Amino acid sequence: MNLPDWLLPYLAIDISVWEKLARTVVVYLAIAILIRVAGKRLMAQMNSLDLVVVLLLSNVVQNAIIGPDNSLLGGLLGAAVLIGFNAILDRIAESGPRMRRLLLGKSSSLVVDGHVDERALARMGISPHELNVALRRQGADTVKAVKRAQIEPGGEILVDLKPGEQAATRDDLVAAVVAITELIRGSGTTRAATR
Questions:
Q1: Is 190 helix (H, G, I), strand (E, B) or coil?
Q2: Is residue 194 scored above 60 in pLDDT?
C-alpha cells in the first residue's frame, strides 16, 4: 500500500522501532541517574537556576531520543515508550523496600530534636534559609519546635513538630469544651449543695 506524499512525514519512521525504543530507554535511565546523583534538592527546592537546568535538559537530550527521525509517529512512539517505561519502573520500585531504596533513594534527616544537621544540609545543597522556609510552611515557628524534619527521595520536606508545638485539632478543641463544661456543671452542683 502506497501512502500519499503528504502523509509520509507523519507516518514514516526514519529509524527502526527497536532503535527508537533503545534510544528512549537509555536516555531515560541516564537522566534518572543524573537526577539521582544531583540530589533530592533538585526535586523540591528549585531556584531559578535549577529551573533553567531542567528546562534545557529536555532540549539537550531531544536529539539523542529522536535521532534523525522527525516523524509524528516516531514522536508518539517515543512518548509511549517514556510513559510505559516509567510506569514499569514505578511498579518495580513499589514491589518492595529494597527496590524502592535502589530506584528512588531514601529519606535524609535534616533536623532531629530541634537541632539542624549542618552536614546533611550541605550534602543536600539546602541553605539554612530554604530549610527555615520549609519549616514555617509546615507550622514550625523555630527549629527548636521541630522533633524531626527529613527530606524524602522525591524532594518533599516532611516536618514532625514536638507535641507541645503542634496545632490543636478540632477533636482537641471539642475535648477541651467538654472538660470545661463538666467543670462548670460540677462547680454549679457544688455551690447548690453548700447552700
A1: helix
A2: no
The whole domain housing 25 covers 5-104
Residue 66 in contact with residue 74, Cβ under 8 Å?
yes
Q: How confident is the model at residue 46 (pLDDT cuts 50, 70, 90)?
A: low
Over residues 156-169, mean pLDDT: 82
State how many domains the chain has.
Answer: 3
Question: Helices marked H in 94-164 — which ranges?
Answer: 97-104, 118-124, 128-137
pLDDT at residue 75 is higher than 80: yes
Contact 126, 155 (CB under 8 A): no
Average model confidence (pLDDT) across the chain = 83
What is the average per-residue pLDDT within 111-118? 93
Residues 131 and 92 in one domain: no
* 91 and 171, same domain (yes or no): no
Neighbours of 149 (CB within 10 A): 24
- Range list of β-strands (E), 14-124: 108-112, 115-116
Q: Please tell me whether residues 17 and 77 are part of one structural domain.
A: yes
pLDDT on residue 11: 73
CATH code, 119: 3.30.240.20
Tell me, yes or no, whether 149 and 81 share the same domain.
Answer: no
Specify the pTM: 0.66
Tell me the C-alpha distance between 91 and 164, whole Å. Answer: 39
> Would the CA dihedral through 143, 146, 151, 155 be positive or negative?
negative
Same domain, 115 and 51: no
